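Sample A.
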Amino acid sequence: MDEDALEYHRSEPPGKIEIATTKPTNTQRDLSLAYSPGVAAPCREIAADAGDAYQYTTKGNLVGVVSNGSAVLGLGDIGAQASKPVMEGKGVLFKRFADIDVFDIELDLDDPDAFVESVAAMEPTFGGINLEDIAAPHCFEIEERLRDRLSIPVFHDDQHGTAIISGAALLNAVEISGKDLEDLEVTFAGAGAAAVATATFYVSLGVRRENITMCDIDGVLTTARAESGDLNEYNREFARDRPEGDLADAMVGADAFVGLSAGGIVSPEMVRSMADDPIIFAMANPDPEIAYEDAKRARDDTVIMATGRSDYPNQVNNVLGFPFIFRGALDVRATEINEEMKVAAAHALADLAKQDVPDSVVKAYGDQPLQFGPDYIIPKPLDARVLFEVTPAVARAAVESGAARLERDLDAYVERLEARLGKSREMMRVVLNKAKSDPKRIALAEGTDETIVRAAAQMIERGIAEPVLIGDEAEIRGTIANLGLEFEPDVVDPESGDYEAYAEHLYDRRQRSGITRREATARIRDDTNYFGSVMVDRGDADAMLTGLTNHYPSALRPPLQVIGTADDAEYAAGVYMLTFKNRVLFVADATVNQAPDEDVLEEVTRHTADLARRFDVEPRAALLSYSDFGSVDNEGTRKPREAARRLREDPAVDFPVDGEMQADTAVLEEMLTGTYEFSDLEKPANVLVFPNLEAGNIGYKLLQRLGGADAIGPMLVGMDEPVHVLQRGDEVKDIVNLAAVATVDAQGDRS
């Protein structure tokens, strides 16, 4: 591990962070705007009103991570220079989880006065200050003085991060164990910065101060020790009027143990001395105060255990807190991070742990079960939903407590946060909002599948659709119970109901295509794809999803046979939406038509343009080939050329379209406006129609895997009723997204 870490850090370029430009710097004019003489304009505005720095500079998204390296986790006092890799790492986490930019500042200063003066002098640079790895008791003094002096948030993560995350865990642990915060007897091992801050925060959550017993290396913090001057001004707040004793004495009868000290100091006997169903947060790193297995084996009742390690359940990891707390504070220009904001963060984290966990998170942690209970009381650090739950809660608390200088429309704010994590989230938000305005009944042909059941629960929770689960009702109800989901979906069991009318409907549709009445009855009973297709075709459901457990062709065949294409359509097609940081592409056809002629290409272009508009994207279509506007003339290049000509000459086509053209011509503005200035496309295309299925499928997968695009789809266009065929292995979020698309389809918004 050491050698791997050294290689990781020394490989070119050394370190883990860099500065990147956010504006164009390609021309002389760009440089004139970025620096002299254009830069004078924002300088004058800021000189007249200092608040304009948030408008014209990166201040509002820039945090200073400041340390003197006097208390680096696991390493101790290693000095400012040696702490730099840690501070760079902190910057990586800020950027990765909350899109916050960081300058790491290492100050070679041991004197608190000099440290405070140096940090205070940097206030014009930053929107917030994250203090890191500063030894107690100076860390308390430094934070207090800077908070009083600066008008931007100051937050010592070593104190408050652990407090907030473990506080969220405590809220859920108390609920699971049936205990009460007000009556909770809590024993702390450790009396340093993290322990004092955590104990103080627990009081804010509802634990009574007189019920907290704190121990340091010399034993219990008692009033006698405080009066003798043995304690500092910060930890003496938790001195109790009780006999002196050691940690073992303090743990007798305790409901909860909180370890912020050293590994291996708690024995199984000490755990057995605690109250029923004890809560044990052994957070020393890298070795907890008691090993996870030892604590669990020490008792026959429920032991709710958390550590600071990622290889055991319930990791108390500060990355669940500081990026999102600062994100919320920065976005409302808060003057501080106050107690109300911290409490809001803890409650938001606790609530999130009770929600269904995304498949991507489960996979990231080795497919281990993640369901609210003793082994899952806090979310995992890689859960992207933390941004959308904790950040708005912090922002709201800042506004309500008077710490904010800006107010936010929180619904619109969540959409802005979605956009920070990628264009795909921003685009899907458009469709999700439309779906919520008028939810539709969605037939889910694979209703017994666990992933489908979880997706159905989220459809209801998010208000985007009314799912109908098709399949064995007992199995579906059992899956809901096993997953701990609390929802009552509409379940349709083809084997237990009277669906003779469905069989008759299928027979009417297919009797001249080789199906008998008996075969129709059997397919309705045994094949949920046919059942769901008939359900939609009869109007008993508004849309259908299938394909999660079937090959694409076999899943597509029943809806094509029963529902068919729209009255104005001859062909269906599969479209992917690919989203990049600053661009969206709709790619067709990637799943259906193997060797389309000009008729198919023309129709697929129309369908795909309509789909783009459902995402509020004005389409600009390019029909692709390996030829540019006749540079190669053969049967293959004539098909997209002819389709493009027809579309351009059709007065009903109200979007720009051109072709045939090469892919780089379609997406690079300088080629369109320079080399091919005659093109009907004045801007790069956002609808790319490939010449055949091979090219489309290969192209979208290369863009997704090597180009870093997020893919949503495939979305089936051209059907008479909304039907979408999932990909095998799709996650819950993919199914929910396609359900939203299907709902918008069913709303009739097809223009």
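Sample B.
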Amino acid sequence: MGSPYPSRRFHGRRIAPRRIVGAVVGLLLVTGTLVGCSDSDGPDRAVDAFLAGWRGADLNKVGFRNPAGERVPANDVAAELKELTGELAKTPPALRREGEAKITEDAATVTVRVDWTLPGDTHWTYPSEIHLKRGKDDDWQVIWEPKVVEPKLTSGDQLALRRLPAKRALVTDGAGNGIVLPRPVVVVGVQPGEVTDVPDLVRDLDRAFKAIRPAIVPAIDLSDLPKRLSEAKPDAFVDVVSLRRDAYLQIKSRIYDLPGTKFRDEQRELAPYRGFAAALLGSVDPVQAADMEANPGLFENGDMVGHGGLQGRYDKQLRGGIGISVIITSKRPDGSVTPSGTEAFRHDPAAGTPLKTTLDVPVQSAADRAVEPEKRRSALVAVRISDGAVLAAANGATPENLAFNAQVPPGSTFKMVSTLGLLDAGAVTLDGPVACPKTFTVEGRSFKNSDSFELGTVPFRTDFAKSCNTAFAALAPRLGPDGLANAGRSLGLEGTWQLGMDAFTGKVSAGGSAAERAAAAFGQGTTLVSPLSMAAATAAVARGQWQQPKLVIEPNPGQAASPGPQLKAGSVEPLRTMMREVVTSGTGSALKDVPGKPVYGKTGTAEYDDNPAHTHAWFVGWQGDIAFAVFVEKGGSSAATAVPIAERFLRNLAAR
């Protein structure tokens, strides 16, 4: 049979059909060499298989040779790949080919883009070259060498991560000075293997810690220390507590030589002294298990994290962004790993952003010292009248921020609000006669005065100064169903405030039965307030207009509530007169000799359950440009608890 391809002549020469086919195929091969091979037999297929195997930890579909041309088992490559990637092995990178393969005869080079996702969502991206060799069977094989993973790697190296902590930013006062700064602490720990008698050690430590003054609140709990010691290795350092250095020095002689005790000097982000605005500021402590569970991969043991208060709420801002360094380590002869000194990648940390507050360190100190002697839970809030700045928020005998978040009846301090409503309604005047009987009954409910006193019929200003409950219960109908609530709202109660911290702004009784309105007129019933809301209301009376308190200045916490209406001069001026008389001749007379400008105020005793003997104690007032509210939980008589705190506060201010 003849050829199916006809003979053809070129320039007078006859060329056989078979030679034509060979020439065409050869031309195609040459063309493929120039532009890169992308068919199924090209190097790209081998590279893609290697990249998939790297990510999937299965390289059995790839053939390997070393630079000398010797075959390398895929399992050996997989093992070395895992060894080389070290601490990054559990999170393989994203991998993709870039550009066309460069092919020269039986050799090829393919560029691969390697993209590691590091802690903190940081990306380390770089190009790597993969060299390939074509075998006798035309299959492309990867030339395996450590620099395929990262160009600086050699055999025996490993990649390791080093976290680069950011400098934590400051919480500053109203002048921009740092409140929370690095300060020395001593970490008290125990080494289990050196303890001779665990119960004796726990008892001695507990006694020593309780001897620290001022007392640590809440007290250090050692109940789980025996269990922790039994579970720890003999040479472990079991952390017991971190003490400010001055507190540690108080008890050093009692605990330093106890069998098993160990001590470590560190620095922590701390306020000027223990207890300084503690509930409001929060703390910065070593990361806890709950932090790590809530933020997988973000923290490591030893990181410092904000907990509670401003430190907790603004932790991300203050902490800044973590930095990360990828270093190349190498193995010592004994098998341990040591850094080689080569840094393959570095992402510098982003420093935290400061948090600027309105707090005033001397005023806060005066407030803390004022509540410190009180053993019951208490709070004192101070607000600058002229601009609403929160200068101090002290909480005594509690880690909770009662100053902002307590929701308690205001008692007779609310007579400041009901009096404003009565004056606005024209229902009373300073000297108008109002009876103050021993008891007053509304709808079968009997109201009485503290200690069951009675004044008879006296000028209203006397009822206010002496805090006559029965007079206000009798006057309640003149407020109408909404008069009390409207007066409270004009002083900012029940508002939506943007402080930068959560705060309870109050709930004022409105409507209800005649008995409920009678109770609400002197701060009982369903009315609830916080010390902050009462301090702000008191500042409004002093200023003549309510202004939202402010605490966080930067970052801006949001649009502040609009100022309240201008208070009627014909109402607010008599109210100020009466609040001054509370101090000069009424229930707050213990404050009349406080140095400095005149003091204005109102006492309050608030029942909080069905037992009239169970009462909270209050005092609200102002001196100069500072308005304040004092609250003592279950404090009984305001004259016995709240007023002395107010006096200590004002005397502390005068002495600064």
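B remarks: The chain is about 30% helix and 25% strand. The chain has a mean pLDDT of 92.
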